[in-house]
Design goal:
heterodimer, A: 113 residues, mainly beta, Immunoglobulin-like, 11 strands, globular, B: 111 residues, 7-stranded mixed sheet, 4-stranded antiparallel sheet
Chain lengths: 113, 111
């Protein structure tokens, strides 16, 4: 079983739709959870991170963590064509003096104008 | 503000040739530095990390090595490239926050 599972998509939605991107993880040692957005042929850029179970909102983006079920989500409201990218979930822990990030394989999102 | 640079952006190399990829960070001191590889259809795989000059830790056995000759410089090398070394190589840095920031990446094709 992979430590982090993420549906690869692609996920196609019309502009303005609400998008739900999800990950499950198996390692209860993960302490905090990041979401990255990666445009084609570019490095990932950090979108959001959260430590605890619950919701964290930043503009059109909401990150949700449920540690009891080991389930993390990213919601995008009023999706825009510029949101078309691959989204990587990244559960993280501090291990042996460094930060160990375990990335999902990413979900490719396409927002159609 | 901090900036991370990687070069070259794109590289095509024959099997058996050497490799040197460079990563530099500006605007910070003593960052933790990371090398990742992203192969097609796969997640980011951590290759090496460094908490200081000359301090390198390897996550997986491979045909690659890393060095940190200066505080803000991280180099990924190979003496002889394999076909399986093809991929998108990403350097990342971290300072105090619990987040990592990535460079623009180097796309390596081994033929």
């Amino acid at each position: 079983q992979k430590e982090v599972e993420q549906d690869p998509g692609p996920l196609s939605v019309p502009e303005g739709a609400i998008v739900s991107l999800n990950c499950t993880y198996s390692n209860s040692a993960f302490q905090y959870f990041m979401w990255y957005r990666q445009y084609s042929r570019k490095g990932p850029e950090l979108l959001m991170y959260t430590y605890s179970s619950g919701n964290k909102e930043d503009g059109r983006f909401t990150a949700q963590v449920d540690k009891s079920s080991k389930y993390i989500s990213l919601f995008i409201r009023d999706s825009q064509p510029s949101d078309s990218a691959t989204y990587l979930c990244a559960p993280t822990m501090n291990s042996g003096g460094y930060q160990k990030v375990t990335f999902g394989t990413g979900t490719k999102l396409q927002v159609i104008p | 503000s901090q900036t991370i640079h990687q070069w070259p952006a794109t590289l095509v190399q024959p099997v058996g040739s050497p490799l040197s990829l460079e990563c530099t960070v500006e605007g910070t001191s003593n960052p933790n530095l990371y090398w990742y590889r992203q192969a097609a259809g796969r997640g980011l795989q951590l290759l090496f990390y460094s908490v200081g000059i000359g301090q390198i830790s390897s996550e997986v056995p491979q045909n690659l090595s890393a060095s940190r000759p200066q505080d803000r410089q991280f180099i990924l090398s190979s003496k002889k490239l394999l076909l399986s070394d093809s991929g998108f190589y990403l350097c990342a840095w971290r300072l105090d926050a619990d987040t990592q920031y990535f460079g623009p990446g180097t796309r390596l094709t081994v033929l």
